[in-house]
Amino acid sequence: MGMTIIEKIMARASGQSHVVPGQFIDAKLDRIIAHEEFYRIHTAAVMNGIEGGLPRIFDRDRFHVVLEHFQPAIDEVQALRAVKMRELADRYRLRHFRDALPGVLHRIVMEDYVLPGELALGSDSHSCAWGALNCAGTGMGEHELAFALVFGNLWFKVPETIKVVLDGQPDPAISSKDVALWLGGRYGTAFALYKSIEFTGPGVAAMSMEQRFALSAHAVELGGKFGLFDYDDKTAAFLAKRKTLRDQLEAATPVAADPDATYCQEVRIDLSTLEPQVAKPHTFENVVPVSSVVGTRINQAVVGSCANGHVEDIEAVARVVKGRKVHPRTRFLVQPASWAVWRECASRGLFDVLIDAGVQVLSPGCHVCLGMQGRLADGEVCLTSTTRNHRGRMGSGEAQVYLASPTTVAVSALAGVIEDPRGVVQ
Amino acid sequence: MGKASILTGRVWKFGDNIDTDIIAPADTISFGLGDAAEQRQVLQNAFRAVRPNFHELVRPGDILVAGRNFGLGSHREPANKALVSLGFSAVVAESIARLFFRNSVAIGFHAFQVPGIGAFVDEGERLEINLDAWRLRNLDRGTEMAIEPYSELIKNIIDAGGIIEVMKQRIAAGVVPAD
């Protein structure tokens, strides 16, 4: 009997020829990545009575620490945590410790570290984003990562797999964000609970890598454990730009599902019929077509995050705002996902277009998505292409956060109210 | 944490999609060092968007009952620890988000996924969880229902008191390879 992508990866990682959903396995990990939570991983060990912290690190060529969530620090406690992180990097003799290159973890990790076919853990819930590269990435908490870092192994329950097949030619105003939001609205936040999602079909083959990033990142908003894509020539082209760890890259082994693999559910989406989608406060499943919220006044608009802080997202904004002005009563923040994204946007003149339109461009990072910058006051309304609209996530619990694609956000930022992007974007 | 085979507590009830931003608001942990001061800060703000001053209401041993996908969102472990600091002995939900469930197991805290729990118990009623018989009892209504037993692997981690306790056992047994 055939296996899905995750079944094959878990079979290989547990040294078995075959695994089935529901089976518990002890899996060898290919890679672990942590951001500032490495400090909590260390202290979890210490506070539970392991003097000095972790007794060993399983593989220093496959453990990467990136200080990005709190870079630059916004207060002394964050600064102090960074000081302690630097001490820990020395104490554990880390080979891959990134201090002064802030950005969004998942973009950095896809540019520099994770590989197709791997089973990799991250200290962040959006680690499923790495699935765009055919890497089985998923988030774990600090206690489990402490264990995993010492032994290089961890327990898993082999998940069932949902197949999401995309087909049809979408309207130019439609992006993969709309697909993720539509799935949330149609199937809810527990759609893929404990399950792996495979995104496939002609609509996926035609999709750029950066469009895939948004879908894989949002697998967790759909409840998913993994959000996986096939490896193809676009994956290869993205990875070819990698400058670090070339030897590991050359050894990578992409994994494809067997033709007779078993799926617990199959969902088909005809992209040609998809309308732009908007998630209303405060969940990823409170989704409506944009037409039903057109005219809603917005105080702040945001494009950024691991889902939508990529070059194409910023290009989509530039296309909309070129030669126009952001509404005078709306703030429009754009935060690129990495310095590589920044560099490409800058060299193509996209930031000039944004700045001329009155967009505020921020240095790369996670700040706005998780409410450490650009916080909202009571009663304010924000339309954002970041990852979550949970109550209180971006500031006051009395603020209203709506999620939409970068194009919908940009069109709305000009109008000062939520707008339908169809017809505006050709 | 609760290794008793029978847990009994008063129920606090929540709806669907209670996310970790509600349980442990980001501003209470983004700036913390994971120390006692942070835990106090998280405790005082836990659930504040939906139940202000919740920490003054919960009594030790109480049981949190919730709807679908409890604990979704950010991976943050302080949200799991907040339930411990509040005094809860267990969470019972229609379903529990994957990371929240794993983190519960990893810190040795009881988390049960029980479809139908919403209709079985109301806020303020007393619930008994029997971990030998794998049954729930609503002590006010006198009704009972079965729950799915933990897998052996999960039970072993919870019984040990969490995954770091398992690691300590291995260190003590001398099976940890040299660094």
Verbal overview:
The complex is a heterodimer of chains A (426) and B (179). With 426 residues, chain A is of the alpha/beta class. Chain A folds into 2 domains: 5-268, Aconitase, domain 3 (2-Layer Sandwich), CATH 3.30.499; 277-415, Aconitase, domain 3. Helices cover 31% and strands 18% of the residues of chain A. Chain A has 15 helices and 18 strands. Chain A has helices at residues 5-13, 37-47, 76-91, 105-112, 142-151, 176-187, 202-205, 209-217, 233-240, 246-250, 305-308, 311-321, 339-347, 350-357, 406-415; strands at residues 24-28, 31-34, 63-66, 96-98, 119-122, 136-139, 153-157, 161-167, 196-200, 226-229, 265-270, 277-279, 287-289, 300-304, 331-335, 360-361, 381-384, 400-403. Chain A has a 5-stranded parallel β-sheet. In chain A, strands 16-15-14-17-18 form a 5-stranded parallel β-sheet. In chain A, α2 links the parallel β2 and β3 (63-66). With 179 residues, chain B is of the alpha/beta class. Chain B has a single domain (6-172), classed as Aconitase, domain 4, CATH 3.20.19. Chain B has helices at 20-23, 26-29, 36-45, 77-86, 98-107, 117-120, 152-160, 163-172, and strands spanning 6-13, 63-66, 90-93, 110-113, 126-130, 135-138, 143-146. In chain B, strands 4-3-2-1-5-6-7 form a 7-stranded mixed β-sheet. In chain B, α4 links the parallel β2 and β3 (90-93). In chain B, α3 packs across α4 and α4 packs across α5 (98-107). Chain B starts with 5 loop residues before the first strand and ends in a 7-residue tail after the last helix. The relative contact order of chain B is 0.17. Chains A and B meet through α2, α3 and α5 of A and α5 and α8 of B.
